[in-house]
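hey m, so remember when u said the tokens were messed up on ur end? i reran from scratch. heres the input so u can diff it against urs
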Amino acid sequence: MKIPPFLKKGDTVAIVCTARKFFPEDAKPAIELLESWGLKVKLGKTIGLDSCQLGGTDQERAADFQSQLDDDNIKAIWCARGGYGTVRIIDQLDFTKFVNHPKWVMGFSDVTVLHSHIHTLGVATLHTIMPFTVPKAPEEVKATLKAALFGEKLAYQIPAKSHDIQGKARGILVGGNISILYSLLGSKSSIDTRGKILFIEDLDEYLYHIDRMMYNLKRNGYFDQVKGIIVGSMTDMHDNEIPFGQNEVQIITAIAQSYNIPIVFEFPAGHQRDNRTLILGSLVDFEVNSTNVILRFY
């Protein structure tokens, strides 16, 4: 797995729309954050475009992203926000130059399309806050993005919970938003989880749909050789008038526990304020014991 070059002061980060629209005035907190780290910022041509929900037409968003991929002066691409729309442009993008000269692609939620596709090309990415979420992100969360971008070692330790499943594993970290992972099944952007540590999270889903997605991932072999599962925030889950009968922890546990792998729930990453940066594509040590959960990046 290729790790893109870490940033140094004076490098330029591009902010672009791959999905929902985002405007220059909304980008100010993110610009100020990057500049405080000694970085320069380039706003892509899609920032300020308005095409219904999207930050420009599919052609405009694809062209903007491609421009940043191919620009040698751009050292990282930060997707402005999620929502929906990245899958509409993924097949228009040419990653040939990017694979030979990789750079960091950053974001979460709908950006999982890019994480997954780029992972199949053998390049690491950053699952992290986006310009849209910068204003609500705690300082310690912003610091995790800075550490990842500048090549500082990342390691997280959180208290274990009674419903976590204990164990140790080492492997490449992959994953993202479970709805997106589910939607990519059968496509060339679907990730290979064999021997990997799988991270999943989601927002605003019905419990029965979490169950359906988990079963479909299982039937597609996602868990057959996976070495561990990290479940981030499952935020604002919904139930039907007739209750499903299981919450998200019970749903995932019922399907995944038979694989005898470590599983942690409520890891601080995903659709919540405490959305810590994960280096997808990095080798990690993952341990769940009776006291703590430890995730260490290499």
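this time it looks ok to me. The chain has two domains: 12-149, 155-297. if urs says something different then somethings off w ur setup not the seq
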